[in-house]
Prior knowledge:
Elements: E1 2-7, H1 13-21, E2 30-31, E3 34-40, H2 44-53, E4 57-59, E5 62-67, H3 82-86, E6 90-97, H4 112-140, H5 148-166, H6 178-184, E7 195-201, H7 205-211, H8 213-221, E8 225-229, H9 231-238, H10 242-252, H11 258-269, E9 272-277, E10 282-289, H12 294-301, H13 303-307, E11 309-316, H14 317-323, H15 326-331, E12 336-338, E13 348-354
Amino acid sequence: xxxxxxxxxxxxxxxxxxxxxxxxxxxxxxxxxxxxxxxxxxxxxxxxxxxxxxxxxxxxxxxxxxxxxxxxxxxxxxxxxxxxxxxxxxxxxxxxxxxxxxxxxxxxxxxxxxxxxxxxxxxxxxxxxxxxxxxxxxxxxxxxxxxxxxxxxxxxxxxxxxxxxxxxxxxxxxxxxxxxxxxxxxxxxxxxxxxxxxxxxxxxxxxxxxxxxxxxxxxxxxxxxxxxxxxxxxxxxxxxxxxxxxxxxxxxxxxxxxxxxxxxxxxxxxxxxxxxxxxxxxxxxxxxxxxxxxxxxxxxxxxxxxxxxxxxxxxxxxxxxxxxxxxxxxxxxxxxxxxxxxxxxxxxxxxxxxxx
Length: 356
């Protein structure tokens, strides 16, 4: 799964890419004009577990980040910048909220609410064009090997999508069943993708948050996560050593770099959770889809563990940390033995019992 960083020109997309991946965008691997990198999920629970176990190696969960071309307003709906965005699983939309005489703005002035609406409308019109073309092809193509009932269901679903888009409402505001999603998933509608909105502000992020409070509330009602950061400040933080960074954050009233919060919001946006393995050799976070059962999680570690899965011994990381160690956690009956039907919870520490 990958997460696409999108936005208008000069919004700070490359900066966000670098903050998440630690790689300058121009030096990142590329394919078909898209830059790719790997982002670590800066999970404080991993830091706390590492402090407890003092392992030889600490490993955060990771996810793939893609940097497609800029959004180009008023371009053809089939423009080159559109298709790479469709291929992403979720979106980070970077919106400029900082003033700078030295950085041009495509619309001549800084207006985050307007820019977000512009991007949303581009995505909405692109989805409308896609839905209309799909319906048109369905009307002409009589050779498709699907049942008449299935064809009618897909047509009705696409007509519902078209009508919603014609009302200038995103598809995420509709309710879809799992069967509905199976029928339209391949179309990769942009207004259905999980979204994180990043407002790239100046140094006074509190003022920016207050100014955009109404916009933020609307986004959160639509299940979009919102992160405020200052790309300039975040880049300064990455250039400092640990002691200087801590002092700088205290001066700014920050408890952690905003890039860390963004990494967690982006990870959640992809529908992923983390389970942990711990010990003196390694403390590690493993990504798995929310709702996954224990054997699937075991398979993330090694295919043999999934194939020969017997039981998973689990303890919530919060319970282990609260107890202060494994022995105390066992005395408190915090450990559980779970079978194949166990649904993994975010923050579970797991030890897999298997036989092959």
